[in-house]
Amino acid sequence: MTSFHISKLVIIGVGLIGGSFALALRQAGLVKHIVGIGRSPQNMQHALDRGIIDEQTSDFSAALADADFVLLAVPVKQTGRVMQQMKPCLEGHTIISDVGSTKQNVVQAARENLGEHIERFIPAHPVAGTEFNGAQAAFPELFQSKPVILTPLPENDQQAVDAVTAFWQGCGARVSSMQPEQHDQLLAAISHLPHMLAFSLMQHIHTLSQTLGEENPLALLRFAGTSLNDMTRITASSPEMWRDICLENRAALLTQIEAYQQELSALRQMLVNHDGESLQKLFSAARATRQAWTALRDKS
Amino acid sequence: MTSFHISKLVIIGVGLIGGSFALALRQAGLVKHIVGIGRSPQNMQHALDRGIIDEQTSDFSAALADADFVLLAVPVKQTGRVMQQMKPCLEGHTIISDVGSTKQNVVQAARENLGEHIERFIPAHPVAGTEFNGAQAAFPELFQSKPVILTPLPENDQQAVDAVTAFWQGCGARVSSMQPEQHDQLLAAISHLPHMLAFSLMQHIHTLSQTLGEENPLALLRFAGTSLNDMTRITASSPEMWRDICLENRAALLTQIEAYQQELSALRQMLVNHDGESLQKLFSAARATRQAWTALRDKS
């Protein structure tokens, strides 16, 4: 590998994220040969057919020989197990990264399983996705202008950090760095908490309809307009995936839920106090932030 | 007025709702002459120019003489005052309705101010709107397939209820009836509560960014994806309007916030207990309801 070009890339888990990373690096001319490792033969065939990977194997030793870069793109809870499989086959120069949506648990798995290779394991989280899965859903523009958060470790080799940064930038992403703890709190706040609020809101409508003697919540929902629609759109997401995210980022999510509960209680207290002035001030601040955010996106 | 045709319609407050009602009734051929009453000369001129009304006046006595139907389309908190002005000029056959988004307070204002005319005052709430205001924003299709909730009173004359039902159906709306208390709880649940959750969520992001040493919440928001975007879209709404709605529907909104807090606490407890099974069950139920709701709308 010279000046951040990859001769041999290994993608473990060739789904939406892993497959799109391969396609984006290819499009950017940053990679020569791509090996895929995956559990579903059908998915691996799609990956070969679409030219996402050049070869597929289930042999870690053959795959990792002479590899410059390994991307771990498996569900977070499989991280430790896959690292165990990788470790005896890893070479001393191979850079490793992942795409997990939580980072403290990935870092712990790496420290437990990678030994001295942790020097070249750079944890990363591309904040991008669609509602579709698998190699067939992959496309090279997935990361264009999307954030990728690295959580480099004290053990990390700086050249490896620079290389991972360069590869993600090559995919069109906006790369930034923070501590694993900070990452998990941030994602809990901007993604996991909003999902919990939406799930709870739908549950609330369900309970309310039963209180009103309506077995079917549609009896209430047929009166609902765009506000409830917007606020519950994300409840269509995969229940299994969200169960896993909840358990994987449990501590940070609990912190965020508790802090949110305080904000909602404060608003409730304004209502109890008939405090129209404080309510209006709160609503105005929220609107100003929303407008600034919209303006920021319109610019980019 | 024969078989629900209006010879003379008076619209008090010719904004988005009042103006659209006029345009829809005209398009349906259900009205002959429309008089507008309003405070902004500029808005009234727009209403005349656009053919929404045939004449405008500030003289309640002239306007209400021989009126078949009066639509009160002013902000809810002005309802009592306007009813006081109307009362001495009302004739014995004139049907009156309103468009207020809360109903218990409107009913109270009517009982305090309309005297025996309450027989022909049918409270109503068209659940429709856009983010724009004024006569210029009015359009005849606003109520097409949208719910209109009547909250008829024990004092009401059934023929007046039938007439108001027919007029709204003439505008293309889906008309249903419920108790004023039930209406206010329903609207608190499906509209006012979701707004409070969104405002609190934006406030939470604001507080969190300060906790993390970032003065500007955009430092966090630039990492956010579609979930937070969807969940805060409605925070761009008018702070003054939402302050008023909060205070007008205060009791019902407090009930809904407290019930929601219990749902969120229950979810939080599942996390505390590492109870993945209950979380998945909750998420699955929410998704099933969401999918049933989407299917219902796709059909209609």
What can you tell me about this protein's structure?
2 copies of one chain form a homodimer. Chain A is α/β, with parallel strands linked by helices and about 300 residues long. Chain A folds into 2 domains: about 5-180, NAD(P)-binding Rossmann-like Domain (Rossmann fold), CATH 3.40.50.720; about 185-300, 6-phosphogluconate dehydrogenase C-terminal fold, CATH 1.10.3660. Helices cover about 50% and strands about 10% of the residues of chain A. A 6-stranded parallel β-sheet of chain A has the order 3-2-1-4-5-6.
Secondary structure layout plus pairing:
The structure is a homodimer of 300-residue chains.
Chain A: E1 6-12, H1 16-27, E2 31-37, H2 41-49, E3 55-56, H3 60-64, E4 69-72, H4 79-86, E5 95-98, H5 104-113, E6 121-122, E7 124-126, E8 147-150, H6 158-170, E9 174-177, H7 180-211, H8 218-221, H9 226-232, H10 239-248, H11 250-272, H12 276-299
Parallel strand pairs in A: 1-2, 1-4, 2-3, 4-5, 5-6, 8-9
Antiparallel strand pairs in A: 7-8
